[in-house]
């Protein structure tokens, strides 16, 4: 099975965008703009920890880091998988539930809700002062 040119282009654009924003110090565009962690917050740190075989830290940074590769494969081969929609809905539900659990855990230092630290808030606050 071959990966289509469109899939390669999409993955390349995502990777280039990620590298570009990382290089200017923005680790997450959603958190940068809103001050609120996204559902994937900690994913990069989890992968880096997993590459060092530090799976305890990897699961601490994001407990679903391992689900990314099967999800990418699911999308790449979506035309060949008859139960794609069920798998996709299940993965989205797992991410949402995990995100909500992490958001409401007071001692989770990875996922945060700090809108006042977001770029949008700071710009609006500056404009109205």
UniProtKB/TrEMBL annotation:
The chain crosses the membrane at residues 7-26, 58-77, 83-101. Keywords: Membrane, Transmembrane, Transmembrane helix. It holds the Pfam family DUF2752. The keyword Membrane applies. This is DUF2752 domain-containing protein. It comes from Candidatus Butyricicoccus avistercoris.
